[in-house]
Design goal:
Blueprint lengths: L2 E12 L2 E12 L3 E5 L6 H9 L6 E6 L2 E2 L10 E4 L11 H11 L8 H14 L15 H13 L5 E5 L7 H18 L2 E6 L2 H7 L2 E6 L2 E6 L1 H6 L4 H7 L2 E4 L2 E3 L2 E4 L2 E4 L5 E2 L5 E5 L4 E4 L8 E14 L2 E8 L4 E7 L13 E7 L4 E3 L1
Parallel strand pairs: 3-8, 3-9, 6-7, 7-8, 15-22
Antiparallel strand pairs: 1-2, 1-4, 4-5, 9-10, 11-16, 12-13, 13-14, 16-22, 17-21, 18-19, 18-21, 19-20
Bound molecules: adenosine-5'-triphosphate.
């Protein structure tokens, strides 16, 4: 598979603020790539540099092997889908989709039959058949999102950039559009680079997930690797599914304010430590009197509260040093537990299930 985009040492500052601090990145053709990062990490700035809306202070951008730093945005052959859709309110669904083809600077399409065929094919692809003549104010949010996507795809871009494309949709629709976006992309074979602040969206959608941290790529890997082997405590923190503990390695234990955790045969990860991380769903809650097995780590904590989220329940426990530990139980595995407020429990996990950044 050939690479579609190559970034080398891209830097961008606004005054004293460094938004991008030297980005090296290669994005393959025919792939779904998610770009995940907390607010302010530089996601939008990076997309805008790639699209050509923003000039970087340094570094180079290559598209299909050719440098495009000097090429204006509208000639790059890169599509952009915005969170707010940015549709023309006075045009119909078909009118919005045709607009870019009819009005492009070079090679504007004037042949009505060709235009109708191209627009019709893309309307079919994104699932808008029958809505061609509706005004865009008379369709649903999900349908407007499809129009925004179709309007970009009809220009046959080499690469499509999507900035929080599902952010304006309600939760049900967002889940459905995830699957649809992936299917549409697969049918076309064009690379999507999808910016999101949602870890679940990034992991669910990306063949490759890029994690941005303060203007740098903290990790680029498949979703499984990111989830199970985050490259640093910062990446683990963004994923919102790891309890992180401060401390230091002391012989065969990790020692910090939360206690002394015996180190098992689990991996020692090189990046950004020292820190100790246990995933929410790796922790079991036991009566305080139950002793741990030799291969387990145990801390005592008082139950604070639970939160149901559909298929799972997340319970929060306070350690003696005040740190809150989150435990996630999937209801398909066991019925919801009934913990007593303020009561003490043993929180237990297998030594080799923890991650050690050292
Ligand atoms: N035009 C600008 N002028 C000054 N500072 C800017 C400008 N655009 C972005 N920044 C700053 O650059 C940093 C990166 O911003 P960016 O919008 O790329 O982050 P982001 O990861 O997309 O955030 P969010 O998820 O909140 O949209 C932020 O600190 C932001 O305040």
């Amino acid at each position: 598979m050939t690479d579609v985009l190559h970034l080398s040492d891209i830097g961008k500052s606004y005054g004293d603020l460094q938004a991008l601090g030297g980005i090296d990145l290669t994005i393959p053709g025919n792939a779904y790539v998610s770009l995940l990062g907390p607010s302010g990490s530089g996601k939008t700035t990076l997309l805008r540099v790639i699209a050509g809306f923003e000039q970087p202070d340094r570094g180079s951008v290559r598209l299909n092997g050719r440098p495009i730093g000097h090429v204006p945005a509208h000639r790059r052959g890169i599509g952009f889908v915005f969170q707010n859709f940015a549709l023309f309110p006075h045009l119909s669904v078909a009118g919005n989709i045709a607009y870019g083809l009819e009005n492009r600077e070079t090679g504007a399409l004037t042949d009505r039959a060709v235009l109708r065929r191209k627009v019709g094919a893309i309307i079919d692809l994104v699932g808008l058949l029958g809505l061609e003549d509706r005004g865009v104010a008379q369709i649903s949010g999900g349908q407007r999102q499809r129009v925004a996507l179709a309007r970009t795809l009809v220009t046959e871009p080499h690469l499509v950039l999507l900035d929080e494309p599902l952010g304006a949709l309600d939760a049900n629709l967002r889940a459905r559009m995830r699957t649809e976006l992936r299917q549409i992309r697969e049918r076309l074979g064009v690379t999507f680079l999808h910016v999101t602040g949602s870890e679940s969206e990034a992991l669910a959608m990306g063949d490759t997930v890029l994690v941005l941290d303060r203007g740098r790529i903290a990790q680029a890997a498949d979703a499984d690797t990111i989830y199970n082997r985050p490259a640093s405590p910062a990446v683990a923190r963004f994923l919102n599914c790891y309890n992180l503990f401060d401390g230091a390695v002391d012989g065969e234990a990790f020692v910090g304010p939360a206690g002394r955790f015996a180190i098992g045969g689990g991996p020692r990860l090189p990046g950004g430590g020292p820190a100790y991380a246990v995933r929410y769903d790796r922790i079991e809650v036991r009566p305080v009197s139950a002793p741990p097995a030799p291969d387990e780590v145990r801390v005592e904590a008082a139950f604070v509260a639970s939160e149901y989220s559909g298929a799972a329940v997340n319970a929060f426990f306070a350690l003696d040093n005040g740190q809150v530990v989150e435990v996630e139980a999937h209801l398909s595995h066991r019925p919801p537990a009934d913990y007593a407020p303020q009561q003490r429990y043993g929180l237990v996990w297998k030594r080799d299930r923890a991650l050690l950044f050292a």
